[in-house]
Amino acid sequence: MTKFSTLLKNIGPGLLFASTAIGTSHLVLSTKAGAQYGWLMIIPIVLANVLKYPFFEFGVRYTNVTNKSLIEGYRNRGKNYLWLYAGITLVTTFTILATLYVVTAGLFINLFHIPEVPLSTVALGLFIFIGSLLIIGRYKLLEISLKFVVTLLFIALLVTTSLVIFRGQAPADPNFVAPDIFNEVGILFLIGLVGWMPTAVEASSWISLWSIEKYKSGNKKPSLSEALQEFNFGYFLTALLAIFFLIIGWLTLYGTGTQISGNAVAFADQLVSLFTSNIGSWTYVFIATAAFATMFSTCMTAHDALARVSIDILELLFPKLMPANKKKYYVWGIVLLVLINYIVITAFSANMGQLVAMATFVSFVLAPVIGYMNLKNVMSHDLPSTFRPKSGLRALTYLGIIFLSLFALYYCWMVVF
C-alpha cells in the first residue's frame, strides 16, 4: 500500500482538527490580520502554528501508543491536573459553542436573505439539526461529511487566492496610514490571533478522543508513524488555509480605508463579498455556501468534542456515579449542550462579548500549562521510551511553552493595569 493510500485510509482525526481550527480563527482573524496589518502578520501566524505543533501532536502520540485519552493521562499525573482541565472545559462549554452557533446562524441568515428571522431562532434550529445529526451519525458521519466540506473550502480558497494574487494589491487610499502593531490595540489583536491560531491548546484532548473513536471503527489501527502522518496532513492544511485567508485580506483590503466590521457575523458577510468581487457575482451562492459549511462543520466538531470530553472527565472524576452505557451518555451530553448554550444565547446575548473575552482569557493564560501537562503525559512511563518525543520535538515544546507564557504574562499585565 502506498503512503498516499495509507493516508486516505487513516484520514479522520487530523481532518476533524482542521475543520475545528478553520472556524472564526481563520475565517475572521486571519483575514482581518491581513486586512488591517498587511503581509507582516504571516510571521505570528507561522510562529503560532509551529510553536503549538507539539501540544497537538502529543494528543495523537499518547493515544496511539497507550489507547488512552490525554484526559486519562492527566488523571494519571494527578487529580489536580484533571480538575484544572475540567475547569477550562466548563468555561468553554458555556461560551465558545454558543459563539460558534451565533456566527453560523448569522451566515445562514445572510445566505438565505432572511433578516426578519431572529438570530436566536436560527441558532436553535441549528442546535436541533446538528444535535440530531451527531446522535444519529456519530463519528462516522463527522468524518465522511468533513471530507466533502474541507475539500470544497480548499478549492474555493485556492481559486480565490490565485485570482487575488493575479490581480495584485488593491489601490491604496492616498490618506492611508499604516496602523501600529505594537500599541495596545495591535498587541491585543496579536494576542488574540496567536491565542486562537490554529485553535485553543485544550483542543489537543479533542484529537485524542477522535483518535480513540477512529480506532474503534473496525479498521486496522494505524502505526504511530501512520497516525502522525494523517495528523500532520490536517495540521499543514490548517496552516496553509490560514495563510490563504491572510493573503486575501491583505491584497484586497489593506490600505484601502475600508471599514472592517468588529462583529464576527458582519465580517463573515464582508468576507463572502470579497470572494465574489474577485471571482464574480455568479459565485455568491457557491462561496456563501462554502463559508456557511465551514462554520457548520466547526459547530459539529466542537459540539461532538465537548460532549466526548465532558463524559470522559465525569467518568474519571466520579467513576462510581457514572452508568456503563456510554452511548446513552453521549446522547445526553449532546442534548445538554444544546440546552445550556441556547440558554446562554437567549439570556446573555447582550454580554456575549464579555463571555467570550472570559473564555479567551482562561484559554490563553492556561495554554502553556496545558502544553506542559501534555508533555508530562508523553514523557511519562505510560509510553515506552522508543515512542516518546525526540530531543528536537521536546526543545520545540519548551520553546512553545516559554513563548505562550510570555504572551500570557503580558496579556495579564495589560488586563490588570
Description:
- This protein has 417 residues and is mainly α.
- It has one domain (3-416): Amino acid/polyamine transporter I.
- It has helices at 3-10, 13-21, 24-37, 42-66, 70-77, 79-93, 96-111, 119-167, 184-195, 204-215, 224-253, 264-279, 284-317, 326-347, 352-365, 367-378, 391-416.
- Helix 4 (42-66) runs parallel beside helix 16.
- The longest helix has 49 residues, at 119-167.
- The radius of gyration is 21 Å and the shape is globular.
Topology readout:
Blueprint lengths: L2 H8 L2 H9 L2 H14 L4 H25 L3 H8 L1 H15 L2 H16 L7 H49 L16 H12 L8 H12 L8 H30 L10 H16 L4 H34 L8 H22 L4 H14 L1 H12 L12 H26 L1
Helix pairs in contact: 1-11, 2-8, 2-10, 2-11, 2-13, 3-9, 3-11, 3-12, 4-9, 4-10, 4-11, 4-16, 4-17, 5-6, 5-16, 6-13, 7-8, 7-12, 7-13, 7-14, 8-11, 8-13, 8-14, 9-17, 10-13, 12-13, 13-14, 16-17
Output the number of helix runs: 17
Shape: globular
**End-to-end C-alpha gap:** 59 Å
How many domain units?
1
Give the number of DSSP strands.
0
Assign the CATH superfamily: Amino acid/polyamine transporter I
**Helical residue percent band:** over 70%
Class of secondary structure makeup = mainly alpha
Write the CATH architecture name. Answer: Up-down Bundle
| Secondary-structure element pattern, one letter each | HHHHHHHHHHHHHHHHH
The averaged pLDDT comes out at 82
Runs in which pLDDT lies below 50 for 5 or more consecutive residues are none
* Beta fraction: under 5%
CATH class: Mainly Alpha
The main pleated sheet reads as: none
Main location: membrane
Transmembrane segments: 40-60, 81-111, 117-136, 148-166, 186-212, 233-253, 281-302, 329-349, 355-375, 396-416
Subcellular location: Membrane
Keywords: Membrane, Transmembrane, Transmembrane helix
